[in-house]
Amino acid sequence: MRSEMEFYIKPFTKHEDTLLGTNILFSILADSDLRDLNSIVHEVGGTGLARTKFVSVKDGKQSAYKIHFIPEVNENLKVSEIQIKLEPVSSQRFRKHIDNSKYLQIHQKYTNIHATAIFDKKLNLINFFSNHETSLEELIQNKSGIHQLKKWLKQLFNGKQISEINLKFIETGTCSLKISSSGFSTTNDSVCVNIEASGSDNILTSHSEGLQFNKYLLNSIPADIVLWNLDHRYIFLNKNTMQDDELRKWMIGKNDFEFCRYRNKPVEIAIKRREAFNKVITRGEKVFLEENFKTSGGDIHHLRIMQPLTDYNDHIKWVLGYSMDITPIKTIESRLLKMKVAVQETMDGIGVLNDKSEYIYVNDAHIKMFGYEKPEDFLGKTWHMLYDKAEINRLEKEIFPLIAKNGRWVGETKGKLKNGKDVYQEITLTTLPDGGLVCICRDRTELRENQERIQTAEIIADKITSTVMITDPQRKIMWVNKAFENTTGYKLEEVIGKDPKFLHGPETNKEEAKLFSKKLRLKIPCSAELLNYTKNGIKYWSQINVTPVFDEHNNLKSYISVQNDVTALKNAELNTKNALTKEKELNELKSQFVSIASHEIRTPLASIQSSSDLIQMFISADEIPKDKIKRHLEKISSQIFRLSSIMSNLLTIGKINLDKFSLNKNEVDIEKFIQKIIADFFTINPDGRSVKFCSTGKKRKSDVDKVLMSQVITNLIGNAIKYSKDRSGPEVLLEYLPDNFRISIKDYGIGIPEDQLAHIYDSFFRARNVENIQGTGLGMVIVKKFVEMHKGIIEVDSVENKGTTFRLTFPYV
């Protein structure tokens, strides 16, 4: 028997010898067969429908083939190529084909014959009329058929009203016959019968009752069902396939190309359906076709099944098509595929075992974890292949009872690589309903070795007093030694996974910390000195030295940090620095004090001395000028008050520097308190000006130290008067706000130069535009200190030659 062959030809040739020379088979065909095959080529090329042909050849021995002609159809229903497949068939199958062909010829001969026959009482045929040139003997060739006919005629002559008789092919030997009586002659000597013959029965048209029943049945099935003839044209569509009655009627006699054009659907649908239809015709078996449609509600998937329908002689007469919605199945399939990809691509090894402990699935990670190359190394084998006897014994005696009881077990196992080396895994075993197991494992060999090395390092690190910290490449803490816990107060489990920056606090130098982080990102050894905070908030200084650690591929693995507590050294350094600063400030204060003493103190003393000498001289005179003596006594008193004020300020500054002040707060009516200060000290001024006062908001009381607050307000109002001579008088505004109160003291005087505003709270500082006005440069230092002691805020706005405003804001308590 020859093997199956296939090749391709171009269609539409006009020559009789299209197939000659194409294959050695065709060179030995009979001329009639060759003409038939060429005719089929032209038919297939013109219709785009597959066809088959049985041929027999004699090349030393008898051989038979079934030849398939399968067209390739484009979107315009044009055939660009025809595939010819030669399928060897047995002689028995070929003979059956020949017999069936002869049978079909007989059926075709007797299709749609109508005849009238007249019989006498002796059942002799008197006359026979037919629409074809045939006789009754040709229609009923078998004796059984003749016997059935005569029996029926005899019953008619005996008066039995049997209207008709049906003879099947097996009884006639030719075709199916329907014979019915049309009446007797007037003398009752003869009977006239009508004979109807058909070559075959169409499943939808042979009987009206069967037609209605079949349509009802097919329309009731909740599935898409259609029938095509051999020209791939619809001869039936049930209602589930197409709900629109008019469109369903229109489809009868149409093909899918016409339907796609009519409904503006992609022609690829029709092409794929034609390809599937042609496979059914040539293979004589079911063909499956998946179709995907995009809708507003998402993708819809249908499985189309085309199945040949044959007559009782096994000839394909129709093609049945039915389909089902497989969208839910495709959705599940898509999810399963994603799950499979996820399982296959995961870094964890995954294996599935059956109830016999044999592998039925392994992913790539599982294969590589044990040093193997392909799934076949595992499939059908038990998990025992991966362990030595001792570990197998431990798992079976200790672990599997736990799995049977709990359904799951997580732990560590010691396996064997293909090359015999040990491999440690963190493993999870979960039972399946069918008694199998799912095994998920992760290689912990390197981690275990690292842990052993780390444990050795821990022992060493815990013996030293320096703080040791190991972080990962992202600078997250992996491990710290005991010295770290002792220094910071944090336990190892509290800091794992944290960035060491959590130790920083409000006074940590942010710029220095950023610079240190930048050095770490360069992956080079580096050091820094940073202020950190313990768990209890205690500040300590660390001298930090960091070394990066790399693997064999020069990839960063970790950072090792060694830190030493240098708080004592830093404090000593700071104390020394503070002492030097204090000494410097003290020297500056001394110099400034000498300057003040030589100027501010000497000037009033000189004035007192001068007035005293003049009074002495006035007393020695014959006539004592009392008015002059009185004027100089007043001058002496004024200079003594000035000296007292200077000394008071110096003493106050001394106390401030020594932190000797404490608050003694009492509830005070702020408005009355300020009004009393103005009345006691600023009602009468030498230049005749007065201080204006007003308040806004809902009046409230507050807790203040009256002595210190009095100094603040007196000093600021006094400055406002002193530095605004010959201009409008000062204004004092008290504002009661929701959360605090504000005192504003405004003057229209000489103001403060903009470049010197920042220095007004420095000791002994005096602006360059007040050289001719008496002052010590200590008043604002005292004011700021007393305001801050009350948890207040002092602000100043000043424009030179336009005036100055001080705003003091205090909480109510």
3D architecture notes:
The chain is built from 21 helices and 31 strands. Strand 22 and strand 23 form a beta hairpin. Helices cover 38% and strands 28% of the residues. The strands form seven sheets. A five-stranded antiparallel β-sheet has the order 6-5-9-8-7. It has a five-stranded antiparallel β-sheet with strand order 11-10-14-13-12, with helices on both faces. A five-stranded antiparallel β-sheet has the order 16-15-19-18-17, sandwiched between helices. The radius of gyration is 59 Å and the shape is elongated. It has seven domains: 86 residues, Beta-Lactamase, CATH 3.30.450; 87 residues, Beta-Lactamase (2-Layer Sandwich), CATH 3.30.450; 124 residues, Beta-Lactamase; 98 residues, Beta-Lactamase (2-Layer Sandwich); 118 residues, 2-Layer Sandwich (Beta-Lactamase), CATH 3.30.450.20; 81 residues, Helix Hairpins, CATH 1.10.287; 151 residues, Heat Shock Protein 90 (2-Layer Sandwich).
Structure at a glance:
By secondary structure, the chain is an alpha+beta fold. It has seven domains: 5-90, Beta-Lactamase, CATH 3.30.450; 112-198, Beta-Lactamase (2-Layer Sandwich); 208-331, Beta-Lactamase; 346-443, PAS domain (Beta-Lactamase); 448-565, PAS domain (Beta-Lactamase, 2-Layer Sandwich); 572-652, Helix Hairpins; 661-811, Histidine kinase-like ATPase, C-terminal domain (Heat Shock Protein 90, 2-Layer Sandwich), CATH 3.30.565.10. The longest helix has 54 residues, at 567-620.
